[in-house]
């Protein structure tokens, strides 16, 4: 920026001959010198401003020259860019024609590949279907044979069970008759023994009573004899002394009292014997009353014994049946092991066949998917390049529209071909899943466990899952 002026006074002094209220004519020498110094300073300042403005002018001129030169260079570059754009348009049109030829070639190759893939898939599906049909026929024949063997075994088992039941009924009837006969014999024997025991008790009681009466009579007779002897002795000794007679009388009186006491005791014993006889008679009546209870207890004992014998017989029959069933179980187990070995062999063969077919079909499907993905990616790239080329080189709207229409038709045809391939693949997968489900259902009906089933659904095979 130019230097600033100091004040208004210097300006006024420059434009007027009066400086600080004093004219130049009236100024002294010192004032004039000061005025000259100020004028010189103003002159120097004006010169500085002039040089500054000249520098600014030179800068502006230099900047204008630079801008003019840049403008010319920009115009030249614009002309070069226009020329390059024209050349690029020419090259782009040439590339579009080349890409069109390449796209036609790719479309023809894709059509050939799709037709080959269709033929391969049809051949593989027919081969797999034939193999599965043969396996299903073999499995049906084996299943029918196993069912026939099972029916024969069931008929044999039913016949054996009927024979065992008949034999068991015959043995049970024989045992029932034998036990009835034994019970009747035991009842007759028991009644006889009861009668004998009653007669023996009655005879024994009568003998005891008669023996007791005989003892009492003999004792009375003996007492009478002793009394007679005593009386005769008293008569013999009566004549001897009166004193002895009196003593003898007294002694006899005492003996008579004793004999009377003995007689009373004997009478009491007789009454006690009669009471004992009555008690024994009551005991006999009690025994006769208890006889039906004992008879019932005997019947219960016989029934329990018969039940025990029947249980033992049933146990023997059950043991015999168990041995027969164990033998039959061993035979059935051997037959089952044989059938299981045959089933494992059939499963192994079927597994090998299906794994082979599955591996080949999986490889072919993987190759088809990779080819389809590569073709789709190539088609998308070509389509993007073609769209970019058409959008970049659009001098003729009608030609661009027709090219876009043709490209749209080509893309739609390719999409239709891809959808057709996807439909064919889905149909093949559905057929494979149906066949796999039918095999699983048949194995379930045959009682074969599926925890080691080696085949997977089509979705897991295509996705690469386990």
UniProtKB/TrEMBL annotation:
<feature type="region of interest" description="Disordered">
    <location>
        <begin position="1"/>
        <end position="33"/>
    </location>
</feature>
<keyword id="KW-0969">Cilium</keyword>
<feature type="coiled-coil region">
    <location>
        <begin position="329"/>
        <end position="385"/>
    </location>
</feature>
<keyword id="KW-0963">Cytoplasm</keyword>
<protein>
    <recommendedName>
        <fullName>Dynein regulatory complex subunit 4</fullName>
    </recommendedName>
</protein>
<dbReference type="GO" id="GO:0008017">
    <property type="term" value="F:microtubule binding"/>
</dbReference>
<keyword id="KW-0493">Microtubule</keyword>
<keyword id="KW-0966">Cell projection</keyword>
<dbReference type="InterPro" id="IPR025593">
    <property type="entry name" value="GAS8_dom"/>
</dbReference>
<keyword id="KW-0175">Coiled coil</keyword>
<comment type="similarity">
    <text>Belongs to the DRC4 family.</text>
</comment>
<feature type="coiled-coil region">
    <location>
        <begin position="195"/>
        <end position="304"/>
    </location>
</feature>
<dbReference type="GO" id="GO:0031267">
    <property type="term" value="F:small GTPase binding"/>
</dbReference>
<dbReference type="GO" id="GO:0031514">
    <property type="term" value="C:motile cilium"/>
</dbReference>
<feature type="compositionally biased region" description="Low complexity">
    <location>
        <begin position="13"/>
        <end position="22"/>
    </location>
</feature>
<dbReference type="Pfam" id="PF13851">
    <property type="entry name" value="GAS"/>
</dbReference>
<feature type="compositionally biased region" description="Basic residues">
    <location>
        <begin position="1"/>
        <end position="12"/>
    </location>
</feature>
<dbReference type="InterPro" id="IPR039308">
    <property type="entry name" value="GAS8"/>
</dbReference>
<keyword id="KW-0282">Flagellum</keyword>
<feature type="domain" description="Growth arrest-specific protein 8">
    <location>
        <begin position="222"/>
        <end position="421"/>
    </location>
</feature>
<keyword id="KW-0206">Cytoskeleton</keyword>
<dbReference type="GO" id="GO:0005794">
    <property type="term" value="C:Golgi apparatus"/>
</dbReference>
<dbReference type="GO" id="GO:0005874">
    <property type="term" value="C:microtubule"/>
</dbReference>
<dbReference type="GO" id="GO:0030317">
    <property type="term" value="P:flagellated sperm motility"/>
</dbReference>
């Amino acid at each position: 920026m130019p230097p600033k002026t100091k004040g208004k006074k210097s300006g006024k002094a420059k434009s007027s001959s009066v400086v600080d209220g004093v004219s130049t004519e009236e100024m002294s020498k010192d004032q004039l010198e000061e005025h000259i110094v100020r004028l010189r300073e103003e002159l120097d300042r004006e010169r500085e401003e002039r040089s500054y403005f000249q520098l600014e002018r030179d800068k502006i001129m230099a900047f204008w020259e630079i801008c003019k030169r840049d403008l010319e260079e920009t115009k030249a570059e614009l002309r070069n860019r226009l020329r390059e754009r024209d050349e690029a348009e020419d090259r782009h049109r040439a590339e579009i024609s080349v890409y069109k030829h390449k796209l036609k070639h790719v479309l023809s190759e894709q059509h050939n590949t799709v037709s080959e893939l269709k033929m391969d898939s049809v051949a593989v599906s027919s081969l797999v279907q034939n193999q599965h049909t043969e396996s299903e026929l073999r499995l049906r024949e084996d299943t029918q044979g196993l069912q026939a063997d099972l029916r024969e075994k069931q008929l044999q088992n039913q016949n054996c069970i009927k024979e065992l039941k008949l034999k068991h009924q015959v043995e049970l009837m024989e045992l029932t008759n034998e036990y009835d006969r034994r019970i009747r014999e035991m009842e007759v024997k028991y009644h006889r023994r009861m009668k004998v025991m009653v007669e023996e008790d009655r005879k024994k009681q009568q003998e005891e009573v008669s023996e007791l009466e005989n003892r009492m009579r003999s004792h009375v007779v003996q007492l009478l004899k002793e009394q007679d002897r005593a009386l005769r002795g008293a008569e013999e000794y009566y004549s001897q002394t009166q004193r002895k007679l009196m003593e003898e009388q007294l002694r006899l009186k005492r003996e008579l009292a004793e004999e009377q006491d003995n007689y009373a005791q004997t009478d009491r014993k007789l009454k006690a014997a009669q009471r004992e006889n009555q008690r024994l008679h009551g005991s006999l009546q009690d025994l006769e009353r208890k006889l039906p209870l004992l008879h019932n207890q005997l019947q219960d004992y016989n029934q329990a014994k018969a039940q025990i014998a029947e249980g033992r017989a049933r146990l023997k029959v059950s043991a015999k049946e168990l041995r027969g069933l164990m033998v039959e179980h061993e035979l059935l187990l051997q037959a089952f092991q044989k059938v299981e070995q045959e089933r494992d062999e059939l499963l192994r063969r079927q597994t090998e066949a299906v794994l082979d077919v599955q591996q080949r079909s999986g490889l072919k499907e993987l190759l088809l998917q990779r080819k389809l993905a590569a073709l789709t990616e190539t088609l998308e790239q070509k389509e993007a390049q073609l769209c970019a080329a058409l959008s970049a080189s659009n001098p003729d709207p009608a030609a661009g529209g027709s090219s876009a229409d043709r490209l749209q038709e080509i893309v739609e045809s390719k999409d239709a071909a891809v959808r057709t391939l996807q439909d064919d693949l889905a149909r093949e997968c559905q057929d494979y899943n149906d066949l796999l489900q039918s095999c699983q259902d048949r194995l379930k009906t045959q009682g074969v466990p599926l925890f080691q089933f080696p085949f997977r659904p089509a979705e897991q095979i295509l996705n690469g899952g386990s």
